[in-house]
Amino acid sequence: MNKINIINAKETEKLLSYEKVIETIEEVYTQKANDRTVVFPLVFHEFDPGVADMDIKSGWLKDSKIFGLKLVSWYGDNVEKGLPALMGTVLICDAETGAPKGILDGAYITGIRTGAAGAIGTKYLARKNSENLLLVGAGHVASFMIPETLIAMPGIKTVRIYDPIDIKFAESLIAKIEANHKGIKFEAVTDIAKATGLSDVIITVTPSKTPLIKKEWVKPGTHFSCIGADMSGKEELDPEISRGARIYVDDLPQNVNVGEIEIPIKNGIITKEDVVGEIGEVIIGRIQGRISEDDITIFDATGTALLDLLTGELAISEAEKQGVGTVVEL
Predict the structure, then answer these.
(1) Are 116 and 23 in contact (CB under 8 A)?
(2) CA dist., res. 100 & res. 62, Å (int)
(3) What is the C-alpha separation between 123 and 326, in angstroms, rounded?
């Protein structure tokens, strides 16, 4: 009989540290750059357009000897039923036997791996002396993005947060996290133009379909980690920012269709050939990251199942060591 470990959200949170997840996501990008991963075709279906949908992302990490999938559903009416609108489940399988190894809650894994992705883009592409971080968007992922970026960029001294909906969300996020980051100045802002001009690093985590940051606000040497654009039509930056910037992505075929670079390419501002390469290629030294202190750098991260799978595998490994989870025989 095959045994499988079922790990709930609270257990997953205790098993995963920011530091280990950052290392894990770097490993995913490294394997991908070395052509040791496969991303399978996305499955998406709207049960009721604008009300209920689901998607299945899946993949295979050859060196880690796992494959699996993440199933995410969004039911907008769930709030009225006392249920979360967004639900996710991650399934990890042994690539040598095909046997399932673990089932995990997907919400926490999605948040922590996304925060790590943005932090890694900043680590490898931002100026090393960067001190000022602007986070655009104060939702679920933002609570991971800040601590993981501060780990990756220990020189950051000031964190400004702008939320396009209401400053109260930024203020609430600061109240939640600032006690854990002594010595860091936090500020909720309403003037995004001014905050942009003060920032060395800007991370965007919104579902916006209209640009939030204009090119004329951006100072030389700024780095952007663009996380929000993960489906066609989304954009957080003025497309003109991409003109002349050094652009890096996480999965070029996917980024061209659903990432921050989708609209600049469709509008003829840049071409696919203007993309320097994928972030994993920077990590392994195949291509160069920032060349000068004045470069505008952009990391367009759309996310793949590979990130969820290796993060889930990390949780399963830690659970085995600590005796955590519910092991059942199928």
Answers:
(1) no
(2) 16
(3) 36
Residue 320, judged by CB atoms within 10 A of its CB (0-12, 13-18, 19+), counts as middle
Query: Tens digit of pLDDT per residue, the chain (330 long)?
Result: 789 999 999 999 999 999 999 999 999 999 999 999 999 988 889 899 888 999 999 999 999 999 999 999 989 899 899 998 889 999 999 999 999 999 999 999 999 999 999 999 999 999 999 999 999 999 989 999 999 999 999 999 999 999 999 999 999 999 999 999 999 999 999 999 999 999 999 999 998 999 999 999 999 999 999 999 888 889 999 999 999 999 999 999 999 999 999 999 999 999 999 999 999 999 999 999 999 999 999 999 999 999 999 999 999 999 999 999 999 998
User: Is the Cβ–Cβ distance between 320 and 312 less than 8 Å?
Assistant: no
Q: What's the CATH fold of domain 121-303?
A: Rossmann fold (3.40.50)
- Residue 205 contacts residue 236 (beta carbons within 8 Å): no
Angle between helix 305-322 and 18-33 (nearest 10): 130
Tell which residue, 130, 57, 131, has the closest CA to residue 303: 57
Question: What is the C-alpha separation between 319 and 74, in angstroms, rounded?
Answer: 28
Contact 133, 185 (CB under 8 A): no
Dihedral over Cα of 14, 95, 2, 103: its sign: positive
Asked if 282 contacts 124 with a C-beta cutoff of 8 angstroms, the reply is yes
Residues known to be catalytic: 70
CATH class assigned to 3-109+306-329: alpha beta
Cα 212 to Cα 241, 271, 284, 326: the distances in Å are 12, 22, 33, 44
* Whether the model pTM is above 0.90: yes
Give residue limits of the domains in the chain.
3-109+306-329, 121-303
SS3 231: coil
